[in-house]
Amino acid sequence: MDLFFQLLINGIIVGTLYGVVAMCFVLIYKSTQVVNFAQGEFLLIGAWICWSILVQFEIPFVFGFLLTLAFMAALGIFIQMVVLRPMIGEPIISVIMVTIGLSIFMRAFSNWVFGQDTVGYPDVFGTSSVNIGGLQVQPAYLMSFVISLIIMAGFFYFFRYSRHGLAMRATAFNQQVAQSLGISVKQVFAMAWAISAMVSALAGVVVGMVNGVSSALSFIGIKVFPAVILGGLDSIVGAVVGGLIVGVLENMAEYVDGQFLHWGNMLTIAPFWVLIIILVVKPYGLFGTKDIERV
Amino acid sequence: MAHATAETTAPPTPSPGAGESILSVNNIEVVYDDVILVLRGVSLEVPEGDIVTLLGPNGAGKTTTLKAISGLLRTENGEVTRGEVRFMGENIANMSPEQIVRKGIFQVMEGRRIVEDMTVVENLRLGAYTRKDGAAAIKRDLDMVLDYFPRLRERTGLAGYLSGGEQQMLAIGRAMMARPKLILLDEPSMGLAPLLVKEVFGIIRKLNQELGMTTLLVEQNAKMALGAASYGYIMESGKVVMDGSQADLLDNEDVKEFYLGGGGEHRKSFKNLKSYKRRKRWL
Ligand SMILES: Nc1ncnc2c1ncn2[C@@H]1O[C@H](COP(=O)(O)OP(=O)(O)OP(=O)(O)O)[C@@H](O)[C@H]1O
Ligand SMILES: [Mg+2]
Hints:
The complex is a heterodimer.
Chain A: H1 2-32, H2 39-57, H3 61-84, H4 92-114, E1 130-132, E2 135-137, H5 139-161, H6 163-173, H7 175-180, H8 185-211, H9 219-231, H10 236-261, H11 266-281
Antiparallel strand pairs in A: 1-2
Chain B: H1 2-9, E1 21-32, E2 36-47, E3 51-55, H2 62-70, E4 78-87, E5 90-91, H3 97-103, E6 105-108, H4 120-127, H5 135-148, H6 150-153, H7 164-177, E7 182-186, H8 194-211, E8 214-219, H9 222-228, E9 231-236, E10 239-245, H10 246-251, H11 253-259, H12 273-282
Helix pairs in contact in B: 4-7, 5-7
The structure holds adenosine-5'-triphosphate and magnesium ion (MG).
């Protein structure tokens, strides 16, 4: 039973992280209508950049991390302006091909520059685990969980109360309406990519601290698809819930498989089975919206 | 140069009122998709502090005129190809809507176009997006707007669930939040029950009297519009075909027949028979 709870907790912790990356994905989809298949590569690049700054320059973690965020914001804006802006008005499938291409390019680039081996982060936290209610939790895991929650609260505040958050929602609702209010749609698009890249990088750094940095980081981008589709593509709350479901499912599948079934590899694909079932029952996902219709 | 052509080709436009014009549209031509010519020389003046109305049948080009002023034309691949739009002395033709909102012109689009998945207060706060005068001033205006529209104060759900009249009030309130110098209203009466139309027009008049809100009002409901405006223009197929003060237009036999319903015995000469047939469709 202990193992069960241990895996449940793992699932929740990993799930909140998936939730964060899923939010980043939804942020881009909602405000710019681009399905970003390169979301996972933002984690990868972010984690590598931060790692190399820390190792190369031996500066305090905080500064290295801030530099990474600045770099990622610039990268996000660059990609939006140079790669995706010319694609406005092109068919969805072309835009998808472009982001898939982007993902392949970024993965190859990071393999080329940083290699394919897994490297550990300089120790920021001790290794001894913390005991919570009889369960052993690594401090890095705890940190990951806390950071994820802080990011979620930040998103909530941003979209609810900040001027730019409202502008993004208005743009997501209708670009012409947003423009009639004096909002620059170009600026909103760039901001969406910048925020998405920065927050994804943050998630990448967190995972890097827990598991080390390697090309495997970009697989989180793939795990995030069932999460966002479960949640309904255009819902930030749905992304969080979807992420949690995927995280917990994965770990529960591991538990069931390890204890009873011994099929192997069920771990990675369980979320996709559930995805299919949910889409059959609710085609717009759990939280996806159709337009409001007044009755 | 553009101004010179305006002088020579535009029909002489009598000045609407005594006040200084805050907006003057000089003989503009508008083209959509590089080929569809929709406005063929439209000129009009809006004096500061007045309500001016722009009337005309479906497809006359009223909305296009407003979009040429607010810059929203751009979002539909339209362009002002001739003439100029002078706002407080500056030619703003073909500027981006972001720039024009910042200069003080705010268009309330046809069909209200509030952000349906936001609350009333969020919609109102969006109206203040371009303002730089601080949270306190915006909060004060938010309270003021809600005082003008007390019904909105009680609505805490999503704006998409408001009634048509409430949505129109929200759209006007959102425009007020920008503190514009000129507000462009596109068919505020559209789809509203007669009683609500009265209420909305009451508010438009009140805003004009109490806050000095300069308004350019596009309407199909000529009776209501001429009740509120001090000056009016009538457009047909991309041109201004008539203009005059409130009293002149209300008195005019053609206007009575074609735009106010009834009056003027057997007159078919307003423009041609086509507009006579059109009348049933839009009055
Ligand atoms: N985006 C566009 N692209 C091409 N043509 C357009 C576009 N918008 C309007 N038009 C055309 O321009 C003409 C004038 O349209 P406009 O919407 O300005 O008329 P309106 O006077 O506002 O009519 P209504 O009373 O029906 O709102 C119409 O013939 C219309 O088909
Ligand atoms: Mg119109």
